[in-house]
């Protein structure tokens, strides 16, 4: 653990190292490809974070649910699917869906396209490297690099697909066709799942769609390259997603873990499956019925890069009074609000004012009795 001790010494200028790394535009993929045998200090995490970084060793550990959507339009089967989705969102906050309508061959093509982008030479990727998180297309390492106390071992290609899609020509050609199509497929899956979640709350099937829950979308293609010291850093640190819902496609390289009943569970990819998880926003608007849960990615000790393609679905239009909070139709004298209403400014300041974290907005708006 000497590196973590060194990282806090008075001679260590963290911000100088961060700036040098950022301005190199090489990302952690560039560091990994250069053949380094030890990671820079800016990536070393504190002993508390590092203390339990390991794959699950409990053979009886729970497994996040896998839900078959093949009979989603069947009146006979749909109520059972609604119940299963509701239970998964309430208990685990994570689940996988199969038979979701997206061809498995296209899932593979999308993963390969994102991998191809990250495997391009530095000089090709560098022209996309910037820090402009709120719009357009951005390639960078760690979106919270300047806001966090320790960087994580991943690079990301990020683009906002809605409500205002980017100029298609801005998307790197090597993955352009696949990501534009993936946005359409993933949004259809998200809309299907949101209908099930809406019904699970006793609401009309199209209520979430009407509230623009899938209109604001950020697509992120993560690369977790080989890390020479995976016991000193993380792929992405433990956090909850701030938005409504997340749809994730990953390759076969492991690393994703979900926190459940004080234990870290490995999420093993199901062939042809997509991972769905509840965001903080959905926990709030459901008045705590659905739960966002901590998840993280371990640093990759394999020579092959871990690839994941994520779409974060967010609210596009807030209420006319400029606020959002638990849906009024879910509240009653027997089910009073447990969260106060909040503004877009509060939401954005909370996210962009620090590194990624766990339920910090929820903690701020919880009504204390």
TrEMBL record:
PROSITE patterns hit by this protein? FE2OG_OXY
- Respond yes or no to whether keyword Metal-binding is given for this record: yes
UniProt entry keywords in alphabetical sequence: Iron, Metal-binding, Oxidoreductase
Which Pfam families is this protein grouped with? 2OG-FeII_Oxy (PF03171), DIOX_N (PF14226)
The residues covered by the Fe2OG dioxygenase domain are 212-315
Keyword Mitochondrion found: no
| Family membership noted in the UniProt record | Belongs to the iron/ascorbate-dependent oxidoreductase family.
**Protein name, entry field:** 1-aminocyclopropane-1-carboxylate oxidase homolog 4-like
